[in-house]
Design a protein that fits this description.
Its EC number is 3.2.1.21. This is beta-glucosidase. GO terms for molecular function: hydrolase activity, acting on glycosyl bonds. It is an enzyme of class 3 (hydrolase). The protein is an alpha/beta fold. Helices cover 39% and strands 15% of the residues. The protein is built from 34 helices and 30 strands. The chain has an eight-stranded parallel barrel with strand order 2-3-4-5-6-8-11-12, surrounded by five helices. An eight-stranded parallel barrel has the order 16-17-18-19-20-22-27-28, surrounded by six helices. The chain has a three-stranded mixed beta sheet with strand order 7-9-10. α31 packs parallel to α32.
């Protein structure tokens, strides 16, 4: 049989099947406009064990999944569903989610062991019975029809102990259980599903043992399937004879089936595809619709013709399509079912991938967008089983859990549209249910895969739910009752967000790399250098991992020539380094000027210029002279004069050769980590008052130093002065206005805290003044904990820059978290909660997850809020735990720099350069030498601190040489 003949057989003679018959290349992803029938059911699905939790409360007995997950080795990370999504207690909240979606139906399952503790009539549990009655009533109160599944894999353990589905006795036990459910709920339930995907129960539960109850028995698939079919028939007859006249409901079964596409047009593969359908779908569907097992399998079991016509509708769970090829019987296969099936199942990688980022997976993942398989399957059912009424009872896919789940939107749009096309072909499809309402326990995969339209925060006891973008899409599809341009064009984010741009950076774009004094120099007490707060902090016990310090670090104080040679090899145009304040002014004041320290920086600057590399000098990278700390440090306003005097010394000594000055690196870190929570030097804990005082003094210090340079040194040297501020992109968790405001507020509480006085109005952001002021009053303060600038200070602050330095590494996801009774604490002042998107690539640093598009969003935020100032990215990079084959760092740099290119070329952002952090592995603060950011590996076990280029150094060198990306460039083909 040819592919054309097979398609005609599936579709009949309908011209609407033309695009199926003619192949998938040109038609499979077309979205056909049109509406579903008026009485079409839109719903979502869950199951009891996956969502309810409350596994042992209110008289519930153990199920086989309770026992299975409590044993070691069955589930990823040892997870179980003891609490799951807590839907047992939160069913009212879940129903409200359904109302928000606008669904007409909700498919859920009853936990057999919740209503019958050991599975028999002798252990009826009234609390469990009442729970489902309450759920049904709550649904009906909101005009949502319950679709109830009697068995979704969670057999009472008491029945498993007597043989489970391998025993004939299960048939009357299931009938008794169904009788209780019909009698209790049948007056309000019009759609009953006896079994969900019985093939999974049969094959994975009793033959391979991968699912509960974990039995491994050759050929058990057929025996269990036989008992399930007989149980379904007995239950159907029970309803027909006892309840149909009064309750007028419908009883069906849900079967799961992939579509099986022949891998070739050869006869063996065509037969293999038909055989796959027979062994999976036909094993259950043929007896129920035709009265017998498929010809290919019926010799295994005896004919039972009385099953004919024992369904009112067929539930279909469909998720994907597989390529099928024939193979001979594998006599060595452990389990009999696949020995007889004799097929090979593959993925068709020519279809679009459904992974979050295709460039994170060399093959793009196994989940593919193949919606045509839904239509073909429905037409197969139409032609094979006399066009029964069908409900798509599950359709969806698992991803890594991103909130703006564009791939799920694409999936649901294409698959539901193929349902519509199947209806137009003449298929009797009555409803479509998305799996699933919530992220939930995904069986042996635990909580890692996410299928929900709603995100559940399993890290919090209250299990809050948040709508993903796909929830908004599905709600729109339901509201429009089909496909309109709005449904077709709905997106979670702009189409170009994840597209790679092939273009070149501007000719004058500057590439560089960075270090800081304490992290690389070493020589902590040589040649007259005074101690800094980081010397003191690191020498205290229990501060740094393994008691490590920056005493020697990379020994760059003695290795100027080696460091500059590395820079020359990279081909960078600038090198950002910092001056150790206590090396040039040991006690922090000009009275202690140390000419040996001055000479070191002169030598470094001269070596850079000789190599045609511009020095970009940071005045303060966190290492305050200890002598100034002893006098109050950044908590005392006297520091403003001290910093201005120090800056003046540096301008005088080095200004003739330094074109770019940065006053402070990451002032936020100084304020918050150093003085708010005290985990960085100098280790002060003042999270609600002192943190704001420190920031206030830093801003005023910057402004003073800027104006000192502008008045006295810029006319002489024509250099430029800026400040480096660090900011993550703050992505709203949901599409809600509250989360958008919270994300914007989070940016203004960090970037705006320092940026708005300098690059904006001259004052703190209004939202920050309002929130801190209101919280302060509520806490009993007579004035805001956020200090106020004088009018003169505002004038000095505003415009005190020639450029902005931006340090950007990662993105946070933000949601609104009202906290009216917050403590005196900077973080609690913001009324928000921060987390990471699980789809992003995690690094060796807990605070850094790779998300390149966040950088473009930050650059556009700065353009829009701060008037598009000249901007240098002064730090960007990611750590690893060592090694020279650092492919993840190459991935990071390629994607982050491409976002910079998009910001310049597509958005008009005024970005002048990119500085990789860092030139070499170095002392990474609290982590010591365990986290390594370098383009060059440093052997810290070698007294010579040998430097060796990593693969990322070679990548960065070629990127600089090519100044951008073309399809055939080395940076795209060789790395």
């Amino acid at each position: 049989m040819s592919r054309l003949q097979r398609a005609v057989l599936l579709c009949g003679v309908s011209l609407l099947c033309y695009d199926i018959i003619t192949g998938h290349d040109d038609h499979s992803h077309d979205i056909r406009m049109g509406r579903f029938p008026e009485d079409f059911a839109f719903g979502v699905s869950t199951s009891a064990y996956q969502t309810e939790g409350a596994w042992d409360v209110d008289g519930k007995g153990e199920s086989i999944w309770d026992v299975f997950t409590h044993e070691e080795g069955h589930v990823t990370d040892g997870a179980n569903a003891n609490d799951a999504a807590k839907s047992y207690d939160m069913y009212s909240e879940d129903v409200q989610l359904l109302v928000n979606l606008g669904v007409t139906h909700y498919r859920f399952s009853i936990s057999w062991s919740r209503v019958m503790s050991d599975g028999t009539n002798s252990t009826l549990n009234q609390a469990g019975l009442k729970h489902y009655s309450d759920v049904i009533d709550e649904l009906l109160k909101h005009n949502i029809q319950p679709v109830v599944t009697l068995y979704h894999w969670d057999l009472p353990q008491g029945l498993q102990d007597t043989g489970g589905w391998l025993s004939d006795s299960i048939i009357h036990r299931f009938r008794d259980y169904a009788d209780v459910c019909f009698r209790t709920y049948g007056d309000r339930v019009q759609h009953w599903i006896t079994f969900n995907e019985p093939f999974i129960t049969s094959w994975m539960g009793y033959e391979t043992g991968e699912h509960a109850p974990g039995v491994q028995q050759d050929n058990a698939t057929y025996l269990v399937a036989h008992n399930i079919i007989r149980s379904h028939v007995a239950t159907y007859r029970l309803y027909q004879d006892k309840y149909r006249v009064t309750q007028r409901g419908l009883v069906g079964i849900t079967l799961g089936s992939e579509w099986y596409e022949p891998k070739s047009e050869g006869q063996p593969d065509l037969e293999a595809a038909d055989r796959a359908l027979s062994f999976h779908l036909g094993l259950f569907a043929d007896p129920l619709f035709k009265g017998d097992y498929p010809e290919t399998v019926k010799t295994i079991l005896q004919r039972k013709a009385d099953r004919l016509g024992s369904v009112d509708f067929l539930g279909v769970n469909h998720h994907t399509t597989k390529l099928v090829s024939s193979r001979g019987n594998d006599v060595s296969a452990r389990f009999g079912f696949y020995r007889e099936l004799a097929v090979e199942l593959d993925v068709d990688y020519t279809y679009p991938s459904l992974v979050y980022r295709e460039d994170m997976d060399p093959k793009g993942g196994e989940q593919r967008l193949m919606g045509f398989g839904m239509r073909k399957l429905l037409n197969y059912i139409r032609t094979t089983y006399n066009n029964p009424k069908v409900y798509i009872t599950e359709n969806g896919f698992a991803d890594c859990g991103t909130m703006k789940d564009q791939k799920r939107i694409m999936y649901l749009r294409e698959y539901s549209n193929n349902v519509l096309q199947a209806i137009q072909d003449g298929c009797e499809v009555k409803g479509y249910f998305v799996r699933s309402l919530l992220d939930s326990f995904e069986w042996t995969s635990g909580y890692e895969p996410k299928r929900g339209l709603y995100y559940v925060d399993f890290g919090r006891g209250e299990r809050p739910r948040y709508p993903k973008a796909s929830a908004h899409f599905y709600s729109l599809l339901i509201k429009e009752h089909g496909f309109t341009p709005h449904v077709r064009d709905f997106r979670a984010y702009p189409a170009d967000r994840d597209e790679f741009l092939y273009d070149h950076f501007p000719d004058d774009f500057m590439w560089g790399t960075a270090t800081s004094a304490y992290q690389v120099e070493g020589a902590w007490n040589e040649d007259g250098k005074g101690p800094s707060i980081w010397d003191t902090f690191a020498h205290e016990t229990n501060r740094i991992a393994d008691g490590q310090t920056g005493d020697v670090a990379c020994d760059s104080y003695h290795k100027i020539d080696e460091d500059v040679q590395m820079l020359k090899d990279l081909g960078v145009q600038h090198y950002r380094f910092s001056i150790a304040w206590s090396r040039v002014l040991p006690d922090g004041t000009p009275h202690s000027l140390n000419m040996l320290g001055v000479q070191y920086y002169n030598n470094l600057i001269d070596a850079l210029l000789a190599a045609n590399i511009q020095p970009m000098v940071t005045l303060y990278h966190w290492d305050l002279p200890q002598a100034l700390q002893d006098m109050g440090g950044w908590m005392d306003s006297a520091i403003i004069d001290h910093f201005d005097n120090y800056a003046r010394v540096c301008f005088e000594q080095f200004g003739d050769r330094v074109p770019l000055w940065i006053t402070f690196n990451e002032a936020f870190v100084v304020a918050w980590l150093g003085h708010g929570i005290g985990i960085f030097a100098p280790g002060i804990t003042e999270p609600g008052v002192g943190v704001y005082t420190v920031a206030h003094n830093i801003i005023r210090s910057h402004s003073r130093a800027y104006h000192t340079y502008r008045r006295h040194f810029q006319p002489l040297y024509n250099g430029k002065v800026g400040i480096s501020l660090d900011i993550e992109w703050k992505e709203p968790l949901t599409l809600s206005q509250q989360d958008h405001y919270a994300a914007d507020r989070a940016i203004m509480f960090k970037l705006g805290w320092f940026g708005n006085p300098i690059y904006g109005s001259g004052d703190y952001p209004e939202v920050m003044k309002r929130y801190v002021g209101e919280k302060s009053r509520r806490q009993g303060y007579t004035q805001s904990r956020l200090p106020a600038f004088t009018e003169e200070e505002k004038r000095m602050n505003k415009g005190s820059y020639d450029f902005l330095g931006l340090n950007h590494y990662t993105t946070n996801v933000i949601n609104y978290q009202p906290n009216p009774d917050s403590g005196v604490h900077y973080e609690e002042d913001q009324d928000m909660r921060s987390r990471f998107d699980p789809c992003w690539q995690q690094s060796e640093a807990s605070w850094l997850w790779s998300n390149s598009w966040g950088l473009r969003y930050v650059l556009n935020f700065i353009k829009d809020r701060f008037g598009n100032p000249p901007l240098y990215i002064t730090e960007s990079g990611r750590p690893d735990s060592g090694g020279k084959d650092d492919i993840n760092r190459i991935y990071y740099y390629r994607n982050y720099t491409n976002e910079v290119l998009k910001a310049i070329k597509l958005d008009g952002c005024n970005v002048k350069g990119y500085t990789a952090w860092s030139l070499m592995d170095n002392f990474e603060w609290l982590e010591g030498y365990h986290q390594q950011f370098g383009l060059y590996h440093v052997d810290f076990n070698d007294p010579n601190r040998t430097r060796t280029p990593k693969q990322s150094a070679d990548f960065y060198r070629h990127l600089i040489s090519e100044n951008g990306y073309t399809m055939n460039s080395r940076v795209m083909t060789d790395f």
